[in-house]
Amino acid sequence: AHMRVVIVEAGNDSTGGEFSTKAFMVACLRAIQHPIYGVADEDDPWEERLQGKLHRTPEGTLRAAFEKAIELRGTEYFVIDEGHHVLYAPGGDEAAARILASYKCLANRTNVKLVLSGSYKLLHLLTLAPHMVGRQQPLEFPRYRAESRGDVIAWQQVLQSFSKCLVFEDGESLCSWSKYLFEGSHGCVGQLSRWLRATLANLLSSGGNAVTRTALERSRLPAGQEASILSEIVAGERQLIRIT
């Protein structure tokens, strides 16, 4: 079957939380639904035989199988989500640079477009392979800014959309606490979503059913953690500053 886009998460789930190139290649074969290395037989529901086969198969063979699958599936885009996790490979930055270069070679051989998705740490990863800098274009999905009228309007629309899925008291909505939510999430929709999900989980465990200011306050991250997240965001934004 044709598979125009293949999306694989770069997990740092090897020994000691390290990034494993072989484990990643196994994930690639699953994502592309390779009939031999990516899909278990019907009589192997617990995947014991499949896992044994993967364990015995050299990484080079798995990589070759993935490249052939890209050709047969007609894949045009190879997306590596959470790409910054490559930085957790054993060997540090030098190893991460080699791995990134190997994915560039894979893209060249298979004629697919390589897309790296993740946090601002991706910018550091790319600096480890200078020969790739001239061949790529960073795309930022920035946070909303309080000083931008357009962003403020868009933020209100985001809150209205989330509010449609929630229950409130006395006609309130997330827009009632717009500034508070903006400050606690740094204007990031991803952080806002995490915060709301944590609030709902806490409400469920306590028997509550309506989102209130108090419920949001109880689920907000500690100040130290918020500061750490903001520090990483600001550092990434500074790396993306363009000379005008």
3D architecture notes:
- With 244 residues, this protein is mainly α.
- The chain has eleven helices and three strands, in the order E-H-H-H-E-H-E-H-H-H-H-H-H-H.
- A three-stranded parallel β-sheet has the order 1-2-3.
- Helix 4 links the parallel strand 2 and strand 3.
- The longest helix is centred in the middle third of the chain and has 19 residues.
- It is globular.
- The model has no long low-confidence stretch (mean pLDDT 96).
Give the biggest sheet: 3 strands, parallel
Strand order of the largest sheet: 1-2-3
**Global morphology:** globular
Q: Give the terminus-to-terminus CA distance.
A: 47 Å
Return the structural class. Answer: mainly alpha
- Radius of gyration over C-alpha positions, nearest whole angstrom: 22 Å
Average pLDDT, to the nearest integer? Answer: 96
The total count of helices amounts to 11
Number of strands: 3
Helix-strand pattern, N to C? EHHHEHEHHHHHHH
Please indicate the percent range of residues in DSSP E strands (runs of 2 or more): 5-15%
- Low-pLDDT ranges: none
Share of helix, binned: 40-55%
